[in-house]
């Protein structure tokens, strides 16, 4: 899982699910996960790779 602070979410790239962070608490219940489109997945991976360097 990777933190996406600008989107207030945690992202699981393997499952392509985004979980919201509400009042500083990650909502990791299966029903809270939001499926990410292929385009958004690529955008998020690019952003995560850029922030890792």
What's this model, at a glance?
Helices cover 28% and strands 32% of the residues. The chain has one helix and five strands, in the order βββββα.
Commentary on this structure:
This protein is of the alpha+beta class and 53 residues long. Helices cover 28% and strands 32% of the residues. It is built from 1 helix and 5 strands. It has one helix at residues 38-52, and strands at 2-4, 9-12, 17-22, 25-26, 34-35. Strands 1, 2, 3, 4 and 5 form a 5-stranded antiparallel β-sheet that branches. The relative contact order is 0.20.
The rough form would be described as: globular
Q: Please state the CA-atom Rg, rounded to the nearest Å.
A: 11 Å
Terminal CA distance reads 17 Å
Oligomer: single chain
Please report the total strand number as a whole number.
5
N-to-C order of helices and strands: EEEEEH
Task: Determine the mean pLDDT.
Answer: 93
Number of helical segments with 4 or more residues: 1
- Helical content (DSSP H or I, runs of 4+): 25-40%
Helix-strand category: alpha+beta
Low-confidence stretches: none
Beta-strand content? 25-35%
Largest sheet: 5 strands, antiparallel
Label this structure with key terms.
single chain; 53 residues; alpha+beta; five-stranded antiparallel beta sheet; 1 helix; 28% helix; 32% strand; globular
List the SSEs and their pairings.
Layout: E1 2-4, E2 9-12, E3 17-22, E4 25-26, E5 34-35, H1 38-52
Antiparallel strand pairs: 1-2, 2-3, 3-4, 3-5
């Amino acid at each position: 899982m990777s933190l996406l602070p600008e989107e207030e979410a945690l992202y699981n790239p393997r499952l392509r699910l985004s979980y919201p962070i509400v009042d500083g608490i990650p909502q990791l219940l299966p029903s809270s996960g939001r499926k990410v489109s292929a385009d958004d997945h690529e955008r998020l991976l690019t952003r995560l790779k850029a922030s890792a360097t």
